[in-house]
Amino acid sequence: LKLQFLYLIDANVAVRTHLTMADEAKAVNKIQTYGKKKHAIAVVTCQTGRGMIRVNGIPLANVMPEGLRIKLQEPLMLAGKKAFNKLDFRIRVRGGGHTSQVFAIRQALAKAVVSYHQKFVDEPTKQAIKDAYMAHDRTLLVADPRRAEMKKYGGSGARSRFAKSYR
């Protein structure tokens, strides 16, 4: 079975390409999601692969700070290895501080797994993973809208005022 695609190069010239079933099977399933926390934004590209997870080119096991590494493992532990073992994750994170970046990464990972299973696997598996995430921590799937309040004049911070002196 061959599929034909027409590509229009000029108004008069059309080029035909043939895709066989083998070429179609090699097509990679790909999902891109993001996670946010304060000013940190993590973008995850999830695709079929061999279970590799990299954050800015570094393996997940080497991400610093070490104390927050367990927070990065939460999406993996809750969904189980079966949901992650045939997927590759490339994560780019920027902005914010260390803690905000870690929370943005974990949210992006969780959202990527859920959306991958919704699009390419099946609905019951996706719902089971989503329910496990929501039961543990809602911020794995839903962004936290809180932001730092802006500093204003007349004081040292957003709400504090300079002391009033009468003499």
Helix/strand/pairing category: alpha+beta
Strand order of the largest sheet: 3-4-7-5-6
3D shape: elongated
Poorly predicted segments: 4-17
Q: Helicity level, as a percent range?
A: 25-40%
End-to-end separation in angstroms reads 93 Å
Mean pLDDT: 85
User: What is the ordering of alpha helices and beta strands?
Assistant: EEHEEEEHHEHH
Q: What is the count of DSSP helices, taking H or I runs of 4+ residues?
A: 5
Largest sheet: 5 strands, mixed
Strand content: 25-35%
Tell me the radius of gyration: 23 Å
Strand element count: 7
Concise structural overview:
The protein is α+β, with helices and mostly antiparallel strands and 167 residues long. It has helices at 21-25, 69-79, 81-84, 98-120, 123-136, and strands at residues 3-8, 14-19, 30-37, 40-48, 53-55, 58-59, 87-94.
Describe the protein's architecture and organization.
Helix content is 34%, strand content 25%. It has 5 helices and 7 strands; from the N terminus they run ββαββββααβαα. Strands 3-4-7-5-6 form a 5-stranded mixed beta sheet. Strands 1-2 form a two-stranded antiparallel sheet. Helix 2 packs parallel to helix 4 (98-120) and helix 4 (98-120) packs antiparallel against helix 5. The relative contact order is 0.16.
